[in-house]
Design a protein that fits this description.
The complex is a heterodimer of chains A (414) and B (308). With 414 residues, chain A is α/β, with parallel strands linked by helices. In chain A, strands 1, 2, 3, 4, 5, 6, 7, 8, 9 and 10 form a ten-stranded mixed beta sheet that branches. Chain A starts with 10 loop residues before the first helix and ends with a helix. The N terminus of chain A is likely disordered. Chain B has 308 residues and is mainly alpha-helical. Chain B folds into two domains: 45 residues, no CATH class; 235 residues, MetI-like (MetI-like fold, Orthogonal Bundle). Helix content of chain B is 73%, strand content 3%. The N terminus of chain B is likely disordered. Classes of the chains: A alpha/beta (414), B mainly alpha (308). Chains A and B meet through helix 1, helix 2, helix 4, strand 6 and helix 10 of A and helix 2, strand 1, strand 2 and helix 13 of B. Chain B: Keywords: Cell membrane, Membrane, Transmembrane, Transmembrane helix, Transport. Chain B: InterPro entries: MetI-like (IPR000515), MetI-like_sf (IPR035906). Chain B: Belongs to the binding-protein-dependent transport system permease family. CysTW subfamily. Chain B: This is ABC transporter permease.
Chain lengths: 414, 308
Amino acid sequence: MEHYEPESLSPAQLSAGRRALRGGSAAVGRRSVLRASAGGVLAAGGLGALSACGIPAAGKGEGGIAADDRSDKDKRVNFSNWTEYMDVDKDERRPTLDAFTKRTGISVKYTEDINDNNEFFGKIKPQLAAGQDTGRDLICVTDWLAARLIRFGWVQKLDPAQLPHAYANLSAQFRSPDWDPGRAYSYPWTGISTVIAYNKKATDGEKITSVSQLMDEPKLKGRVGFLSEMRDSMGMVLLDLGKDPAKFTDDDFDAAVARLQKAVDKKQIRRFTGNDYTADLDKGDLAACVAWAGDIVQLKLSNPDIEFAIPDSGYMTSTDNLLVPNKARHKRNAERLIDYYYEPEPAARLAAYINYVCPVDGVRDALAKIDPKAAANPLIIPDKAMAAKSHAFRSLTPKEEAAYEGKFAKLTGS
Amino acid sequence: MTTLTKAAPPEADEPPAKPPRKRGRLVPYWLLLPGILWLLVFFALPLVYQASTSVQTGSLEEGYKVTWHFATYWDALGDYWPQFLRSVIYAGAATILCLLLGYPLAYLIAFRAGRWRNLILVLVIAPFFTSFLIRTLAWKTILADGGPVVGALNNLHLLDVTNWLGATDGDRVLATPLAVVCGLTYNFLPFMILPLYTSLERIDSRLHEAAGDLYARPSTTFRKVTFPLSMPGVVSGTLLTFIPAAGDYVNADLLGSTDTRMVGNVIQTQFLRILDYPTAAALSFILMAAILFMVTFYIRKSGTEDLV
């Protein structure tokens, strides 16, 4: 960085500076300084610097995985989560977290700084790749990102001895995903069901019950939404084509892309959305869409026209998972927090508030005491018939992931 | 350094060895230092890094290495030229709309507003006190399918016209190019109005009287006096509108559809979703080069290089 000193400015910059400072109009001077600096930088930075950059391979960070665990001395845990993913009472306090602090003496710094898996990955990647502490002890990300973090070796193995409730109470449905057999690294925070939702008023009372209907029904033209999460949208289309998202081939995927492309081409589909579809569906700008069940449970409370449907072909299930990143300072505290949320009582309180699928067995009785309606809702506690239709998207190799995301991006217009 | 002393103006012609003078000579450089440092750290270094990324190959698992793979540029341009073209067209349309809407308003504020001037200026800037995202989302409500705006446009058969132009599709505005252009226009309008206002406000109103005395009609006065004198405002206003609008992706994302994606959306997708950093970097460079080229051409053409 020698060119930080004025003495070592390049000749071009110096002469430009001189010209500017000694007379001549200020405007011309300013411009020539800029021009000269740009020239100087290109010369100084030069091609050597170009080839010196480069991004090292992921997962080969130096300095090991664990940091010394300060959990015993420092009774804190830093928890990063999605927005609207924690119970909040009228005074803006978080009852279940407060109860945890009261019982264990561990204070929780709870931050809602995850809005999008891709963006969050971009945020934590530099530190994790460099083998540094992210400042977070517990993060919550969706399956495919959890799988990627595990593959890169960027998260720590959990200690089963610290997780008795979690081990005992985890629903069978979520016990052994192919990307984390036996849940060595992760525990689900919530289950997410991807279903069909529609606005009765906007469809003139017609029931929308299949993905084919979404893609073909002329009445819905220009008022259908799909999700911008590739796995959720493509999984639903694969199911509609009779393929199993847990074991499909490249050809199956291409067929599903072609099927959805046809719907895009005839302008059936209005948009590929993130969480923002809820407002559109509420207003009726979207008549029907692929939706996340938790949102629909909440939306139904304020708008009775909103309905959901589980297609006969099945629906997609995924989870948002708790993980401890490398170099986290309070791993044991984080594990205690995970275990706490697998006790039926806190789990029920959480489920009653956020309305997503609860991954904890034996929560139904506890939930029935707080909110009997929620306990009977299959979108929160799936019944047998519903669980039988649930499908997960298989984990992808990095090559497949890039190829599929690329094809899906083309489909969505970029 | 000798040339420096020789070229010095007469009143500064003192012995150069005198310490206070010497320090005085260095002061301008020290004053430049923060600016140059800022440029280096936040503009030049990222640019070098980006240039390097654009010629690398690899993947996240294996790491990226510089392989001077310039084909990335061709591939990116070949795959995404429609989005580039769209960005230029949308940004251009938004800039023209901004000029058409902004010029009369700036004229009004500068010459006719009287004691309301400050109030109107505040009204122009006030929307900026809320976030860009909120302002864009508000347009989803304004242009909602069943809403009064779209209803009125349908009743007046104005949407038939825009349908024919290919700017809308059917009886709605949201999720069409028109909505994206509306969003861009609205979001960047103040960047047009403020430079226009400052350059109009500087015009001596006696020039208008003189033009009247010389029997110029109001339209002639505008054409021959006011507009030429406001050219610096027009040029900087159009630049301040066009450049950010061409790189914008929020409006296309929230108000658009699959066939309204702009190059900003492609870069975002490549960078965050597909993790293809070289393509994202190459696309950014192409966009930068294209804008630089167009702006240079424009400034040369409008002959206002010294006024910007």
